[in-house]
Amino acid sequence: MTNPLHWWDSLGRPLARLPRWAAAAALAVLAALMVWSALAAAPDQQAQPAQVEAKADPADGDLALYARISQRVAAGEPYHAVAMEEQRAADYPTRPFVTVRLPTLAWLHAAIGVGGVRMLCAALLLACLFGLHQRIPHGLAPAERVGAIVMLALGGAAVAAPLSGLVHEVLAGLLLTLAFVFYTPSRWWPSLLAAALAIAVREIAVVFVLLWLAFAIVARRWGEVTALLGLLLVFAGGMALHYHFVEMRRMLGDPASQGWDGMAGLSLPLVALSRLSALLILPAALAVPLAILPLLGWLGLGGRMGLFAALWFAGFFTGMALFARPENFYWAQLTLPAYIAGMAFVPRAIIELIQISFGQSARQP
Protein backbone atom coordinates (compact mmCIF):
# COMPACT_ATOMS: atom_id res chain seq x y z
CA MET A 1 0.00 0.00 0.00
CA THR A 2 1.38 3.40 -1.02
CA ASN A 3 2.10 5.77 1.82
CA PRO A 4 -0.08 8.88 1.19
CA LEU A 5 2.61 11.11 2.67
CA HIS A 6 5.19 9.75 0.22
CA TRP A 7 2.74 10.49 -2.60
CA TRP A 8 2.27 14.03 -1.29
CA ASP A 9 6.04 14.53 -1.07
CA SER A 10 6.38 13.35 -4.66
CA LEU A 11 4.19 16.23 -5.82
CA GLY A 12 6.80 18.80 -4.87
CA ARG A 13 4.90 22.07 -4.77
CA PRO A 14 1.26 20.90 -4.93
CA LEU A 15 -0.22 24.15 -6.29
CA ALA A 16 2.02 23.82 -9.33
CA ARG A 17 0.30 20.50 -10.08
CA LEU A 18 -3.21 21.89 -10.24
CA PRO A 19 -5.16 21.83 -13.51
CA ARG A 20 -5.90 25.19 -15.08
CA TRP A 21 -9.50 25.38 -13.92
CA ALA A 22 -8.54 24.52 -10.31
CA ALA A 23 -5.83 27.18 -10.20
CA ALA A 24 -8.25 29.81 -11.53
CA ALA A 25 -10.87 28.70 -8.99
CA ALA A 26 -8.31 28.89 -6.18
CA LEU A 27 -7.42 32.47 -7.12
CA ALA A 28 -11.09 33.42 -7.30
CA VAL A 29 -11.81 31.89 -3.90
CA LEU A 30 -8.77 33.61 -2.39
CA ALA A 31 -9.83 37.00 -3.77
CA ALA A 32 -13.40 36.50 -2.53
CA LEU A 33 -12.21 35.50 0.93
CA MET A 34 -9.97 38.54 1.21
CA VAL A 35 -12.74 40.92 0.18
CA TRP A 36 -15.22 39.19 2.50
CA SER A 37 -12.79 39.27 5.43
CA ALA A 38 -12.18 43.00 5.03
CA LEU A 39 -15.94 43.63 5.12
CA ALA A 40 -16.90 41.04 7.72
CA ALA A 41 -14.17 42.04 10.15
CA ALA A 42 -15.28 45.68 10.31
CA PRO A 43 -18.04 45.22 12.94
CA ASP A 44 -15.92 42.68 14.82
CA GLN A 45 -13.02 45.12 14.87
CA GLN A 46 -15.23 47.74 16.49
CA ALA A 47 -16.21 45.39 19.32
CA GLN A 48 -13.17 43.20 19.82
CA PRO A 49 -10.40 45.74 20.47
CA ALA A 50 -12.31 46.86 23.55
CA GLN A 51 -12.47 43.26 24.70
CA VAL A 52 -8.79 42.75 23.94
CA GLU A 53 -7.84 45.84 25.90
CA ALA A 54 -10.10 44.88 28.79
CA LYS A 55 -8.53 41.46 29.01
CA ALA A 56 -5.03 42.94 28.79
CA ASP A 57 -5.69 45.58 31.46
CA PRO A 58 -3.24 44.84 34.28
CA ALA A 59 -5.74 46.21 36.82
CA ASP A 60 -8.58 43.92 35.75
CA GLY A 61 -9.46 40.93 33.60
CA ASP A 62 -7.77 37.60 32.96
CA LEU A 63 -4.18 38.74 33.38
CA ALA A 64 -4.89 40.35 36.73
CA LEU A 65 -6.56 37.12 37.84
CA TYR A 66 -3.55 35.03 36.77
CA ALA A 67 -1.19 37.47 38.49
CA ARG A 68 -3.07 37.26 41.79
CA ILE A 69 -3.14 33.46 41.64
CA SER A 70 0.57 33.26 40.85
CA GLN A 71 1.47 35.66 43.65
CA ARG A 72 -0.37 33.53 46.19
CA VAL A 73 1.11 30.29 44.83
CA ALA A 74 4.58 31.84 45.03
CA ALA A 75 3.82 32.65 48.68
CA GLY A 76 3.26 28.95 49.34
CA GLU A 77 -0.50 28.49 48.98
CA PRO A 78 -1.85 25.45 47.07
CA TYR A 79 -2.75 26.22 43.48
CA HIS A 80 -6.23 24.75 43.18
CA ALA A 81 -7.49 26.28 46.42
CA VAL A 82 -6.18 29.69 45.37
CA ALA A 83 -7.51 29.45 41.81
CA MET A 84 -11.01 28.52 42.96
CA GLU A 85 -11.08 31.32 45.54
CA GLU A 86 -9.83 33.97 43.15
CA GLN A 87 -12.17 32.95 40.32
CA ARG A 88 -15.18 33.01 42.66
CA ALA A 89 -14.16 36.41 44.03
CA ALA A 90 -13.89 37.84 40.49
CA ASP A 91 -17.11 36.12 39.37
CA TYR A 92 -15.24 33.91 36.93
CA PRO A 93 -16.75 30.51 36.15
CA THR A 94 -15.31 27.40 37.78
CA ARG A 95 -17.61 24.94 35.98
CA PRO A 96 -16.77 22.84 34.05
CA PHE A 97 -13.38 22.09 35.54
CA VAL A 98 -11.48 23.22 32.42
CA THR A 99 -12.42 26.82 33.20
CA VAL A 100 -9.71 26.57 35.89
CA ARG A 101 -6.36 26.66 34.12
CA LEU A 102 -3.78 23.96 34.65
CA PRO A 103 -1.34 24.86 37.44
CA THR A 104 1.81 24.61 35.29
CA LEU A 105 2.27 28.30 34.52
CA ALA A 106 1.53 29.39 38.10
CA TRP A 107 4.13 26.91 39.35
CA LEU A 108 6.59 28.26 36.80
CA HIS A 109 5.88 31.80 38.02
CA ALA A 110 6.61 30.64 41.56
CA ALA A 111 9.94 29.22 40.38
CA ILE A 112 11.28 31.97 38.11
CA GLY A 113 8.77 34.82 38.29
CA VAL A 114 6.61 36.40 35.60
CA GLY A 115 9.63 38.24 34.22
CA GLY A 116 11.53 34.98 34.09
CA VAL A 117 8.75 33.39 32.04
CA ARG A 118 8.87 36.33 29.65
CA MET A 119 12.61 35.81 29.23
CA LEU A 120 11.98 32.11 28.70
CA CYS A 121 9.49 32.99 25.94
CA ALA A 122 12.10 35.21 24.29
CA ALA A 123 14.63 32.36 24.44
CA LEU A 124 12.10 29.96 22.93
CA LEU A 125 11.45 32.40 20.09
CA LEU A 126 15.17 32.48 19.32
CA ALA A 127 15.23 28.68 19.38
CA CYS A 128 12.28 28.62 16.97
CA LEU A 129 14.12 30.95 14.60
CA PHE A 130 17.15 28.65 14.65
CA GLY A 131 14.98 25.57 14.17
CA LEU A 132 13.15 27.06 11.20
CA HIS A 133 16.45 28.06 9.60
CA GLN A 134 17.57 24.45 9.87
CA ARG A 135 14.29 22.94 8.69
CA ILE A 136 13.30 25.11 5.70
CA PRO A 137 13.58 23.07 2.48
CA HIS A 138 16.89 23.78 0.75
CA GLY A 139 15.28 24.26 -2.66
CA LEU A 140 13.72 27.57 -1.67
CA ALA A 141 15.11 30.89 -2.86
CA PRO A 142 17.27 32.78 -0.35
CA ALA A 143 14.63 35.52 -0.15
CA GLU A 144 12.03 32.97 0.91
CA ARG A 145 14.32 31.47 3.53
CA VAL A 146 15.19 34.85 5.02
CA GLY A 147 11.57 35.98 4.71
CA ALA A 148 10.30 32.96 6.64
CA ILE A 149 12.67 33.70 9.52
CA VAL A 150 11.67 37.38 9.56
CA MET A 151 7.97 36.50 9.44
CA LEU A 152 8.39 34.01 12.27
CA ALA A 153 9.96 36.74 14.38
CA LEU A 154 7.06 39.08 13.57
CA GLY A 155 4.62 36.31 14.43
CA GLY A 156 6.19 36.20 17.88
CA ALA A 157 5.60 39.89 18.53
CA ALA A 158 3.52 39.08 21.62
CA VAL A 159 6.73 38.16 23.45
CA ALA A 160 7.56 41.88 23.58
CA ALA A 161 4.40 42.68 25.57
CA PRO A 162 5.27 43.48 29.21
CA LEU A 163 2.72 41.00 30.55
CA SER A 164 3.35 38.21 28.05
CA GLY A 165 4.70 36.02 30.84
CA LEU A 166 1.16 35.79 32.24
CA VAL A 167 -0.43 34.50 29.04
CA HIS A 168 -0.67 30.71 28.86
CA GLU A 169 -1.19 30.73 25.10
CA VAL A 170 2.00 32.70 24.38
CA LEU A 171 4.20 30.09 26.07
CA ALA A 172 2.21 27.15 24.70
CA GLY A 173 2.25 28.58 21.17
CA LEU A 174 6.01 28.98 21.24
CA LEU A 175 6.41 25.40 22.46
CA LEU A 176 4.17 24.11 19.66
CA THR A 177 6.15 26.10 17.11
CA LEU A 178 9.33 24.62 18.55
CA ALA A 179 7.86 21.12 18.22
CA PHE A 180 6.87 21.88 14.64
CA VAL A 181 10.15 23.34 13.38
CA PHE A 182 12.42 20.85 15.15
CA TYR A 183 10.67 17.70 13.93
CA THR A 184 12.61 15.34 11.69
CA PRO A 185 11.81 11.66 11.08
CA SER A 186 15.19 10.64 12.46
CA ARG A 187 15.08 12.89 15.55
CA TRP A 188 11.55 13.46 16.79
CA TRP A 189 11.96 13.22 20.56
CA PRO A 190 12.78 16.95 21.08
CA SER A 191 9.48 17.76 19.35
CA LEU A 192 7.69 15.29 21.61
CA LEU A 193 9.15 17.00 24.68
CA ALA A 194 8.16 20.45 23.43
CA ALA A 195 4.61 19.28 22.62
CA ALA A 196 4.32 17.66 26.04
CA LEU A 197 5.29 20.92 27.72
CA ALA A 198 2.80 22.82 25.55
CA ILE A 199 -0.16 20.69 26.60
CA ALA A 200 0.99 20.89 30.21
CA VAL A 201 0.63 24.67 29.95
CA ARG A 202 -2.58 24.81 27.84
CA GLU A 203 -4.62 21.67 27.36
CA ILE A 204 -6.20 22.60 24.01
CA ALA A 205 -2.70 22.36 22.51
CA VAL A 206 -3.46 18.62 22.44
CA VAL A 207 -4.96 19.05 18.95
CA PHE A 208 -1.38 19.41 17.66
CA VAL A 209 -0.47 16.05 19.21
CA LEU A 210 -3.58 14.40 17.77
CA LEU A 211 -2.69 15.62 14.27
CA TRP A 212 0.88 14.41 14.74
CA LEU A 213 -0.48 11.02 15.82
CA ALA A 214 -2.59 10.83 12.65
CA PHE A 215 0.50 11.58 10.53
CA ALA A 216 2.54 8.95 12.39
CA ILE A 217 -0.16 6.32 11.87
CA VAL A 218 -0.48 7.11 8.16
CA ALA A 219 3.31 6.91 7.79
CA ARG A 220 3.36 3.70 9.85
CA ARG A 221 5.99 5.12 12.18
CA TRP A 222 5.13 2.87 15.09
CA GLY A 223 7.79 4.17 17.44
CA GLU A 224 6.31 7.66 17.20
CA VAL A 225 2.79 6.25 17.50
CA THR A 226 3.70 4.48 20.73
CA ALA A 227 5.37 7.58 22.18
CA LEU A 228 2.47 9.83 21.23
CA LEU A 229 -0.09 7.42 22.69
CA GLY A 230 1.99 7.34 25.86
CA LEU A 231 1.98 11.14 25.97
CA LEU A 232 -1.80 11.22 25.50
CA LEU A 233 -2.21 8.68 28.30
CA VAL A 234 -0.12 10.82 30.66
CA PHE A 235 -2.09 13.88 29.54
CA ALA A 236 -5.39 12.12 30.31
CA GLY A 237 -4.07 11.19 33.74
CA GLY A 238 -3.02 14.77 34.40
CA MET A 239 -6.41 16.09 33.36
CA ALA A 240 -8.10 13.53 35.62
CA LEU A 241 -6.05 14.77 38.57
CA HIS A 242 -6.87 18.38 37.67
CA TYR A 243 -10.56 17.45 37.57
CA HIS A 244 -10.29 15.81 40.98
CA PHE A 245 -8.60 18.78 42.65
CA VAL A 246 -11.09 21.24 41.16
CA GLU A 247 -14.15 19.17 42.04
CA MET A 248 -13.05 18.55 45.62
CA ARG A 249 -13.21 22.32 46.13
CA ARG A 250 -16.52 22.79 44.38
CA MET A 251 -19.12 24.88 46.24
CA LEU A 252 -22.84 25.15 45.71
CA GLY A 253 -23.61 28.08 43.45
CA ASP A 254 -20.23 28.23 41.73
CA PRO A 255 -20.67 30.13 38.45
CA ALA A 256 -20.68 28.07 35.25
CA SER A 257 -19.20 28.91 31.88
CA GLN A 258 -21.43 30.10 29.04
CA GLY A 259 -20.18 27.14 27.05
CA TRP A 260 -18.16 26.96 23.85
CA ASP A 261 -20.69 27.15 21.06
CA GLY A 262 -20.09 30.70 19.95
CA MET A 263 -20.35 30.02 16.20
CA ALA A 264 -18.50 33.32 15.71
CA GLY A 265 -17.34 32.41 12.20
CA LEU A 266 -13.96 32.66 10.52
CA SER A 267 -13.75 36.38 11.11
CA LEU A 268 -12.91 35.63 14.76
CA PRO A 269 -9.56 33.85 14.18
CA LEU A 270 -8.66 36.28 11.39
CA VAL A 271 -9.28 39.33 13.55
CA ALA A 272 -7.45 37.64 16.42
CA LEU A 273 -4.39 36.98 14.25
CA SER A 274 -4.42 40.61 13.12
CA ARG A 275 -4.37 41.72 16.76
CA LEU A 276 -1.92 39.21 18.22
CA SER A 277 0.92 39.47 15.68
CA ALA A 278 2.87 42.27 14.05
CA LEU A 279 -0.12 42.73 11.69
CA LEU A 280 -1.43 44.90 14.52
CA ILE A 281 0.47 47.88 13.10
CA LEU A 282 -1.60 47.79 9.88
CA PRO A 283 -5.13 49.12 9.38
CA ALA A 284 -7.74 46.44 10.11
CA ALA A 285 -9.07 46.51 6.55
CA LEU A 286 -5.62 45.41 5.38
CA ALA A 287 -4.42 43.30 8.31
CA VAL A 288 -7.42 40.95 8.46
CA PRO A 289 -7.32 39.92 4.76
CA LEU A 290 -3.54 39.50 5.00
CA ALA A 291 -4.09 37.08 7.89
CA ILE A 292 -5.53 34.60 5.36
CA LEU A 293 -2.42 34.45 3.19
CA PRO A 294 -0.01 32.41 5.38
CA LEU A 295 -2.35 29.43 5.08
CA LEU A 296 -1.94 29.55 1.30
CA GLY A 297 1.81 29.88 1.74
CA TRP A 298 2.08 26.80 3.93
CA LEU A 299 -0.13 24.75 1.61
CA GLY A 300 1.91 25.83 -1.40
CA LEU A 301 5.18 24.87 0.31
CA GLY A 302 4.37 21.19 -0.06
CA GLY A 303 6.08 18.26 1.65
CA ARG A 304 5.23 16.99 5.11
CA MET A 305 6.06 20.33 6.67
CA GLY A 306 3.67 22.29 4.46
CA LEU A 307 0.85 19.75 4.70
CA PHE A 308 1.10 19.41 8.48
CA ALA A 309 1.09 23.20 8.90
CA ALA A 310 -1.87 23.70 6.55
CA LEU A 311 -3.96 21.05 8.31
CA TRP A 312 -2.96 22.27 11.77
CA PHE A 313 -3.88 25.87 11.09
CA ALA A 314 -6.99 25.23 9.01
CA GLY A 315 -8.32 22.78 11.58
CA PHE A 316 -7.58 25.03 14.54
CA PHE A 317 -9.15 28.10 12.94
CA THR A 318 -12.22 26.09 11.97
CA GLY A 319 -12.51 24.97 15.59
CA MET A 320 -12.30 28.59 16.73
CA ALA A 321 -14.93 29.62 14.20
CA LEU A 322 -17.32 26.96 15.52
CA PHE A 323 -16.69 26.89 19.24
CA ALA A 324 -14.90 30.01 20.48
CA ARG A 325 -16.68 33.05 21.84
CA PRO A 326 -15.34 36.52 20.91
CA GLU A 327 -13.59 36.78 24.26
CA ASN A 328 -11.69 33.57 23.41
CA PHE A 329 -9.79 35.40 20.66
CA TYR A 330 -6.49 34.61 22.43
CA TRP A 331 -6.78 30.93 21.42
CA ALA A 332 -5.24 31.96 18.10
CA GLN A 333 -1.98 32.59 19.95
CA LEU A 334 -1.49 28.81 20.01
CA THR A 335 -0.73 28.92 16.27
CA LEU A 336 1.85 31.68 16.65
CA PRO A 337 4.52 32.41 15.70
CA ALA A 338 4.56 29.48 13.24
CA TYR A 339 1.52 30.56 11.25
CA ILE A 340 2.84 33.98 10.20
CA ALA A 341 6.05 32.42 8.83
CA GLY A 342 3.91 31.06 5.98
CA MET A 343 3.64 34.61 4.62
CA ALA A 344 7.12 34.18 3.11
CA PHE A 345 5.88 31.40 0.83
CA VAL A 346 2.84 33.32 -0.48
CA PRO A 347 4.42 35.15 -3.47
CA ARG A 348 5.61 31.96 -5.12
CA ALA A 349 2.26 30.24 -4.44
CA ILE A 350 0.30 33.09 -6.07
CA ILE A 351 2.69 33.22 -9.02
CA GLU A 352 2.21 29.50 -9.56
CA LEU A 353 -1.58 29.86 -9.53
CA ILE A 354 -1.45 32.80 -11.94
CA GLN A 355 0.91 30.99 -14.33
CA ILE A 356 -1.28 27.91 -14.45
CA SER A 357 -4.46 29.98 -14.83
CA PHE A 358 -2.98 31.57 -17.97
CA GLY A 359 -1.92 28.23 -19.40
CA GLN A 360 1.74 28.43 -18.45
CA SER A 361 3.71 25.73 -16.64
CA ALA A 362 4.60 26.66 -13.09
CA ARG A 363 8.29 26.12 -12.39
CA GLN A 364 9.19 23.63 -9.68
CA PRO A 365 12.23 24.47 -7.50
TrEMBL record:
Transmembrane region(s): 106-132, 152-182, 188-213, 225-246, 266-293, 305-324, 330-351
Annotated keywords: Membrane, Signal, Transmembrane, Transmembrane helix
DNA repair in keyword set: no
Segment forming the signal sequence: 1-40
Top-level taxon of origin: Bacteria
Keyword Transmembrane helix among UniProt keywords: yes
Protein name per the record: Uncharacterized protein
Organism: Aurantiacibacter rhizosphaerae
Lineage of source species: Bacteria, Pseudomonadati, Pseudomonadota, Alphaproteobacteria, Sphingomonadales
